[in-house]
Structure formats: C-alpha cells, structure tokens
Amino acid sequence: MNKFETLELLTGDEGIAQAVKLLQQGECVALPTETVYGLAADATQPDAVAKIFAAKGRPSNHPLIVHIPDETHIARWADSKPADLQKLADAFWPGPLTVILNTKAGLNNPVTGGKDTIALRVPSHPLFLKVLIDLDTGLAAPSANRYKQLSPTVPEQVVEQLTGRIPAVLEGGACEHGLESTILDLTSDELRVLRAGPISAAEIEQCLGKPVTTPMEHNEAVPGNVKAHYQPNAPVTLVKTAELTQAIENESNKNIAVLAYSEQVLKELNALDFQPSLIKQIASDAAGYGKGLYYDLYCLDKLTPAKIFVETPPVSDDWQAVNNRLSRAASFEFIPE
Prior knowledge:
single chain, DHBP synthase, disordered C terminus, 2 domains, ten-stranded mixed beta sheet, alpha/beta, tRNA binding
C-alpha cells in the first residue's frame, strides 16, 4: 500500500482534472456519489484495484461494484443484458441501483472477488459521472472508509479514515441518500434484493411487473453482507422507544450518547437533565433517517462515549435499508486499527 503524507481535498474543474489524472496513473481517489463517498480506482487496472483492498483493509474475496458512465458499458463487463435490465436502467439509472450480472467470458478481474458475477451501476452524482465520462472506463468504488467502519457521507470522514492511505478526495458536499445502493441479483429467474437501499423492492416490482424477494439473511458474496459492519468505535446498542430512558438510568457509566428520532424520547431525556451534546436528533422519516445515520453516528462517536444508544426505528418496508445497517452496526466485533 502506498503511503501519502497528506490527503488532498480537490475542488472545482481543476480538482476533477486532477482526480482523472490520478486515476489514470493507477491511484485511488475518493469520489462523491449520491449514496456515500466511494474509494475509486480504474477497474481495468488490477494493480489499482488492489490498492482499494489495501487502503480499506478489505479482504480480496469481497467483490466490488463497478461504476460505469452509461449502459453501453455493460457489454465490457457482462456476458449478456437480461430483458429486465433495460426497464430498470430506464427507470433508475443514473441512480442508486446496483445490478448483479454474469461476467463476460474470460473476464479475470479482482473486482469480482473471484466470483463469476459482476456488480454494475451508473451513479447519478454529477462529479462522479463527469470523471467517468472523461475516463471512458469503469471505476471500482466501494465506500471510502476502513473496512467495517462507518461509510463516509462528507469529505471530512474520508480524511479522518484514509489520510496516509490515498492521495486525494474530490469535494462534493454531503451525499444525497447517505446509504449504499440497492443491490439486485439478475443472474436467475428469481429476482432478489441482496442489499436494501434507497430503491425499494416495491419500486422494482412496480417497474418490472413481477415479484422481487428480499431475503432477511443470505450467504451471497455482495458488498455489505457481513454481520458486523458500518460501525463507529463506540459499541452501538439498539433500544426500543419505551425502554430507552430506563436503559440509560440503569447504566452505571453515564457517558452514553443517544441517537433518537421521537419527540417522546427527546422530552424524556430533557427531563433526565441529560447532557445535550450527547444527544443527536435524527429525522423521523425513513429517507431523512437514512441520509443522516452515518454522519450522526460519526459526530456522536467523536465525543468518545462509552456506548451509543440508538432508538430503534419502525419496522416496515420503507425502513428496511435503515434497519439493515443498524443491525450490522450493533453487531459488536473488535475492529483493529
């Protein structure tokens, strides 16, 4: 892995040009997407892709999503274009939908993680798209964070996690969705959402006019499918609304941070004379909650609490992506430095 003294913040047209140059030279650059910041490398350069795994500390058998500038690039990576894909592309691309296809014959590329499938999407963030169009290639780009840690939705998170590991991040502000893309498996007749995201199974069903399943658990090798993931340094505990204030009172160590969305809990915390700086109020709708989740956990974690209590959100189809991320954030596993 290359060692860089600083992580440069790239801005404007000059920053885009510099990002393109670095990527052409086989370096990794963090780029903004509409979901989270991605750690990009030219997917056609195996040595560059290897730098992604090294910078993140990610196992090389975990496949990466390849971002392409438009659907004409599908043939460079996949063996065919399923009939459903055109409808999906028309409806959701550019956007936060990743599709899994069978790889093109003879494709031997580390982005597949050794599998015979390829994950593709066309991102909608204008800066990422501009870089892709200028390069005219695919960019492998998992989230720009250390393996299993919080995905970054603002540049400062990239800087904190990857300084010394990559040369630059392209400034693109806060990400629109804040959660990773929906992953849809198109390699069989059974359409499966293998990672919940901003585009719901119901929206896909409406687009295609056929059923789409969303298994609660599966063993497919896709990004994000490990038990412990999306984690701050402080352990996360999910607590039901009715039990949250009592759980705090029962703790001997009061250095607890709280992420809450309901007015009920916020009023109860105020009545407890709870330290305001240790409370983050997050949006009460699923889209707003998802957008703020990683950044709010990041802000609370910077206060170095002993624990982070998260008010458990509703359980419904709209909240599936949020609950998926929270269940993994609350699965404690030691994260080495």
